[in-house]
Amino acid sequence: MDMVEDRQTINIIEQQMQKLKYPNPMSLEYLLNHPLEEETTYVPTEEEIAESLLQSMNVVQDEEEEDESEEIPIITVKSAVESIEKVGLFLMQQSTN
Fold first, then answer.
1. Distance CA 22, CA 16 (A)
2. Are residues 10 and 28 in contact, defined by beta-carbon separation less than 8 angstroms?
3. Cα–Cα–Cα angle for 37, 29, 7, nearest 5°?
């Protein structure tokens, strides 16, 4: 769409808005091109972006190292069977109470 078609479309929409008879209608130009949309509150420098990325990479690496340090305990078959028997006894006690 070129500027002429855009202007025509905006005019048509504004005419339709006038038919709605709002007491204080906002202009369509203002709605479509709100001045606050043009403002940027903060633009980080390249150094800040790089530092942020490095910090996030260090956090991920630290978490991976923590995960690797936790070893899964070895459970023997005998220990597993005893645990299952204990759970069975527990369930039987719960059903009788």
1. 11
2. yes
3. 125
Mean pLDDT of the chain: 80
User: How far apart, in whole angstroms, are the C-alpha atoms of residue 40 and residue 43?
Assistant: 7
Of the segments 4-18, 36-50, 74-88, which one has the largest average pLDDT value?
74-88
Q: Where are the domains of the chain?
A: 3-38
Whole-structure pTM value = 0.32
Tell me how far apart the alpha carbons of residues 1 and 21 are, in angstroms, rounded to a whole number.
29
Number of continuous H segments (helices) and E segments (strands) in the chain: 4, 0
Q: Find the helix or strand (DSSP H, E) in which 78 lies.
A: helix 77-96
What residues contact 1, with CB distance under 8 A and at least 6 apart? 9
